[in-house]
Amino acid sequence: MTLVLASTSEIRRRLLAKAGIAVAVMAPAVDEAAVRHGLPPDLPASRIAESLAEAKARSVSANRPDDHVIGADQILVLDNAVFAKPGDLAEARRHLASLRGRTHTLVTAAVVLRHERILTTITDSANLTMRHFTDQFLDRYLAAAGPDVTGSVGAYRLEELGAQLFDRIDGDYFTILGLPLLPLLAFLRAERLIPS
Question: pLDDT digit string (tens) for 102-128?
């Protein structure tokens, strides 16, 4: 029996590894835009994140049915508008400019499947308030952070230069990074998948 992370996110793999959890990593074959398009338009952000996490876990679980597969996703919400990962640096700049000086919510979901059956769904959220920064600061930030920011919803990485964008953060650090780690570890211990 193996724990499998259905994600290409290096930060999620690193969070599990630093917590002492060995996982195999498999990229899910999921078109996130198509999954979102197939969801009801008034679906809450938590259900969108859960649906995407489940789709990723199912994609990998189909090839690894005997393993425990962890899928995860994160949604950013500002004034009921849901943000996807920016496609390029120009879109990242637009996202950051619209988030500047305002509070947004990150909703993070994790789903664990085995034999195509959902064993648990864990969802958490955090509120983040960006400071008022100048256009010049924004340009310097994007030049220093580079195209890697397009891999993160919101176009920032809090564990790196992105910390300079914020005034206030209310919520769990791991949730903000993309994985509700503590409740996930509690589930894995309860299932005797990791030592307790």
Answer: 999 999 999 999 998 999 999 999 999
